[in-house]
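B., you asked whether I could sanity-check this one before it goes into the benchmark set. Here's the sequence:
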Amino acid sequence: MAQSLKAIVVEVTGGNVRNSHIYLKEALGFFPADSVGGSNAAESGKPIVFRMGGEEVETDLDGAKAIIRDRGAMKRFFEREHVAAGDLILIERLGKRLYEISKASKRAFKYHL
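And here's what the prediction gave me:
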C-alpha cells in the first residue's frame, strides 16, 4: 500500500469488538515497515503513536495477527466510542509515526462503499 495514502477505513466485526482489536492485514503497508513486529512483545516492532478518543498510545503492530498490539487501549476506545459490529473506523496519518483513530460515520462513506 502506498505511503502516500492519508487515511484508511476498516469495518469492525463482532469478533473485533469481543477481542478488542481491528484487522489490519490488508493495510499493514499503510504503516512504517519497522512498526510491524512478531507475535509477542519480545518480537515487537518500533513503536508508533495512535491518538484515539482523547488518549495517546505508543505501541507497535502484531504482524502475525495484523492488529494493533495494545488491546487494552483498543478496548477503552471501543467502550468510549460505543463501537459495535458494522461500524467504520477511520485511521488517519498525521505524521510519519503519528496516527489518529476515530469512529467514522457510514453516512459519510455511503457513495464510496
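One thing to flag: Residues 36 and 63 are 5 Å apart (CA to CA). Otherwise nothing jumped out at me.
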